[in-house]
């Protein structure tokens, strides 16, 4: 179910069956050689060219090599998915679906959630250093190769993954995979490239903070996970940028670009050919880390099999008993909740985010329920072209936007990760209505939760009987149909197929076919949805308000308390 982490989703649906909320393929949140990364298009970003004859200086981050050895290949039950595991732990996965071009990707299990104070923002910098200098190419030569390919070459960093992807014609696969191998396995961090980042990243940060739709979701994570992990900064802080050196970047690369944390994926290519190209480009030659080497020796003895759950716990920093090692950069996330208010009375609209802890990939049943709940709530802007399948019959449209002319937008969101998630509603309104907006938003979540017998202490300020207006069977059926439709339509995109494949293997070690996902969605009942909504209200809230905040600052504890919500 790693498809839930697809970068191709919109920011409001970045998890919970994220593919169900995709706009189109990968634009919107991906980063190409000329674009920003971290799951968002930030701004076109040209880099300085250097002549290919110029001497190349920099820190070589090449990973230590190992002796080649045998590989192990597994085939899915439907015969569509092939997974080869090299002796060093690196996995190669492919599906040879027919099409006019081939999609290639390298996925690294690294990101901001694993970072420590000394490495905050380094995943962001690794993304920005992609497709620049390497053992084989200078920065200018890499650019020339990309332009000659004429395809789509991109990189992106997120909280749990750094990914590199390419879409090229089949005859260009060797060149594209060579380029991907060089930028992931053999980068060269030069002072010139780093100096360029010091000029461009501050502008990027300034642009990022100026856009509420980009800044507030990141602030939401910071407030919700105040102890670190998922609350770590996604973009590189200015002080970290100034202190970063080629040596420190190379050290970060050596620590995290380990073979057991890397997946190479392809769609539209024969598996044997992909494995051969991976061997030729050194993916099988990376020396395994000590942990993987010891595990390989242990696996040779009888009765020493370890489940994928044990591996999953290690990736999250969990021991065998499930206790988190909080000192590890990969420790289990801890949801804290919190409140953040920023007064900007000159803003045209006041932005309100109300979020709660939800479930992660480790709870499949709840995950499908939250995905359906997100579709059930739906929402959008005050004006939409609408039409069948566009969510005009979702609850946030029919019960909020169509009822309150002063509300500009109201949308359900779900950010989902390996071990937890954030579910909630974001909305905006004209100044001096923010306290009423918070009440309306809390009412909609409580209305669904109340269907399982949860009764609020007091009625809603704006709608006295809203807490008793639970979802109907028709609404649930419509939400499930829309979820299935969006899932299947978006999986028609080759780049979505690629990311879905790579991330599923990386997170869970297996590929769940679309037909199985549809069966899980179809199995969701009204009781599952109301339980999921009720579980949200059992946790403290995460409240963010930006704009005119006077009304909220005075009344938010009382408003939330009226709906049984604990404010922090």
Commentary on this structure:
The longest helix is centred in the middle third of the chain and has 19 residues, at 191-209. A hairpin with a 6-residue loop joins strand 3 (72-75) and strand 4. Helix 11 (364-377) crosses helix 17, helix 13 crosses helix 17 and helix 14 runs antiparallel to helix 16 (514-522). Helices cover 37% and strands 15% of the residues. The protein has helices spanning 122-128, 139-149, 173-185, 191-209, 212-224, 238-243, 246-256, 271-280, 290-299, 308-315, 364-377, 395-401, 434-449, 473-490, 494-508, 514-522, 526-536, 550-562; strands at residues 31-32, 59-60, 72-75, 82-85, 91-95, 102-108, 152-157, 162-168, 188-189, 262-267, 338-343, 350-358, 379-381, 407-416, 421-429, 542-547. It is globular and about 65 Å long. It is α+β, with helices and mostly antiparallel strands and 568 residues long. The protein is built from 18 helices and 16 strands. The strands form three sheets. Strands 1-7-8-6-10-5-4-3 form an eight-stranded mixed β-sheet, with helices on both faces. Strands 11-16-12-15-14-13 form a six-stranded mixed β-sheet, with helices on both faces.
